[in-house]
Specification:
By secondary structure, the protein is an alpha/beta fold. It has one domain: Spore Coat Polysaccharide Biosynthesis Protein SpsA, Chain A (Alpha-Beta Complex). About 40% of the residues lie in helices and about 15% in strands. It has helices at about 15-25, 55-65, 85-95, 120-130, 135-145, 155-160, 170-175, 180-194; strands spanning about 10, 15, 30-35, 45, 70-75, 100-105, 110, 115, 150-155. Strands 5, 6, 7, 8 and 9 form a five-stranded mixed beta sheet that branches. The protein has a two-stranded antiparallel ribbon with strand order 1-2. It has a two-stranded parallel ribbon with strand order 3-4. The two termini are about 25 Å apart.
Length: about 190
């Protein structure tokens, strides 16, 4: 992107505000995981214990800083993900008590928008200490080492079975904004729905 995508404006608000608004709508007092102190005006920032290790570093830092057993993680660059889907995912995690509740979209796991048990913490730490920052690999290793399972499901199937208002097609829910082209497409999508 060339700059912090959390501060890119979509629909008149920075992406970070879109993500935090979803979490607040779910009743959370969200925190921002990572080493970006510039975002502290939006919500408290939890500093990475393993800097420069990407999303797994942020997941580890957040799990180390919480007392909650189940923890919802939401990346800043998924502005189309409905709050109703996140609420459904939280309810599912409460019932399954899985190590990780990870949606799949178009057949691919979406581990950055997931719910992780605190039981994941020592396994994330071990992976990071070994220099392996791949989220799904850490989750799979943790599941193999514990009696807890990974609960994975197809977002498309869940969306089709629910009566949620869906102004955005499911295939767009998990489209990350990783390049200027992605962001331009999101701006165009935003104009169509507003």
């Amino acid at each position: 992107m060339g700059r912090d995508k959390a501060l890119l404006e979509l629909g008149g608000r920075p992406l970070i505000e879109h993500a935090l608004a979803k979490l607040r709508a779910l009743g959370f007092s969200p925190r921002i995981a990572g080493s970006r102190l510039a975002l502290s005006s939006f919500a408290p920032v939890v500093q990475d214990n393993y800097p420069q290790q990407g999303p797994l570093g942020g997941i580890e830092a957040a799990l180390a800083a919480t007392a909650s057993e189940q923890n919802l993680f939401l990346p800043v660059d998924l502005p189309w993900l409905p709050v109703a889907f996140l609420r459904w995912m939280m309810e599912r995690a409460e019932h399954t008590n899985a190590l990780a509740t990870v949606p799949r979209a178009q057949g691919l796991p979406q581990p950055l928008c997931a719910i992780y048990s605190r039981a994941m913490l020592p396994h994330a730490q071990a992976a990071l200490a070994e220099g392996d920052a791949k989220v799904m690999r850490a989750v799979e290793r943790a599941a193999a080492a514990t009696d807890l399972r990974i609960d994975s499901f197809d977002a498309e199937s869940i969306a089709a079975s629910q009566l949620w208002e869906q102004r955005i097609p499911v295939y767009r829910w998990f489209q990350n904004l990783n390049s200027p082209t992605d962001f331009q497409a999101a701006l165009e999508q935003s104009q169509r729905i507003h």
